[in-house]
C-alpha cells in the first residue's frame, strides 16, 4: 500500500460518523472522570482506575490529533477549531509537578471539544464570535451608563447608606447587584427609600436602562449574528458547489478533448490502413 493510499484510508476513518461518535463518547467519559477526580473519597477508593482511564483516553486523543496532523497537514493548522483541539490535548500532557502544574487544571477544557464535533454547536460559537464587535459597542455604552449612575448614586446615598454607596467602588458593586436584580428591592431600594422617598425612581430608571434595554440589545445582536452566520454558511456552500461544478466542467471538457484527439488519431490510422 502506497503512502497516498494509506493517507486516504486514514482520512476515511477520521471522517466516518462512527469515529466521530466514538470520540464524542470518550470526551463525555473523560468529563465524568475529571469530575470524579475532585472527590477525595472517590479517589481514595478508585484513584488508580480513574488515572488509568484518563491515561488511556488521553492516549487516544493524542493519536487522533497526530492522525489529523498527518492527514490534513497545513490545512489542520489553518483551521481554528483544529488548533483549539491541539492546544486542549497538549495541556493535558503537562507534568503534574513543577511550575506549570497549575495548568493541568485546564484539562477540563477537553470537554469543550464537543463544540468542535457538533456542527450545530460550532454554528452557535461562530455566531457569538462574529457578534463580538457589536457586543463590544453595547458594552462600552453600558459602562458609560454604569459610571454615570454610580456617580449619581454615590452623591445621593453615600451619607445615609455608606456601606452600599460610601465610595465609587462600593457603589459599582451595589449597582451590579441591582442590575442583576439580586434582592435589589429588599436590600437596596427600600432601605434607600426610608431616607429618600423618591429613591425608587432612580433604581427603576437604572434597571430599565441597563437590565432590560441593554439585555434586549444584546439578544438582538446575537440573533442577528446567528442569522447572518447561517446566511453566510449557505452562500459559502453555494460558492463551493458552484466551484465544484466549474471544476467538474473543466475536467469533463479536458476529457472530451482528449477523447476527441484519440478519435481523430484512430480515424487517421484507419485512413492510412485503407490506403495501404
UniProtKB/TrEMBL annotation:
<dbReference type="Pfam" id="PF00520">
    <property type="entry name" value="Ion_trans"/>
</dbReference>
<keyword id="KW-0175">Coiled coil</keyword>
<keyword id="KW-0472">Membrane</keyword>
<keyword id="KW-1133">Transmembrane helix</keyword>
<protein>
    <submittedName>
        <fullName>Ion transport protein</fullName>
    </submittedName>
</protein>
<feature type="coiled-coil region">
    <location>
        <begin position="249"/>
        <end position="276"/>
    </location>
</feature>
<feature type="transmembrane region" description="Helical">
    <location>
        <begin position="198"/>
        <end position="223"/>
    </location>
</feature>
<feature type="transmembrane region" description="Helical">
    <location>
        <begin position="83"/>
        <end position="103"/>
    </location>
</feature>
<dbReference type="InterPro" id="IPR027359">
    <property type="entry name" value="Volt_channel_dom_sf"/>
</dbReference>
<feature type="transmembrane region" description="Helical">
    <location>
        <begin position="18"/>
        <end position="36"/>
    </location>
</feature>
<dbReference type="InterPro" id="IPR005821">
    <property type="entry name" value="Ion_trans_dom"/>
</dbReference>
<dbReference type="InterPro" id="IPR043203">
    <property type="entry name" value="VGCC_Ca_Na"/>
</dbReference>
<feature type="domain" description="Ion transport">
    <location>
        <begin position="17"/>
        <end position="233"/>
    </location>
</feature>
<dbReference type="GO" id="GO:0001518">
    <property type="term" value="C:voltage-gated sodium channel complex"/>
</dbReference>
<keyword id="KW-0812">Transmembrane</keyword>
<feature type="transmembrane region" description="Helical">
    <location>
        <begin position="124"/>
        <end position="148"/>
    </location>
</feature>
<dbReference type="GO" id="GO:0005248">
    <property type="term" value="F:voltage-gated sodium channel activity"/>
</dbReference>
<feature type="transmembrane region" description="Helical">
    <location>
        <begin position="48"/>
        <end position="71"/>
    </location>
</feature>
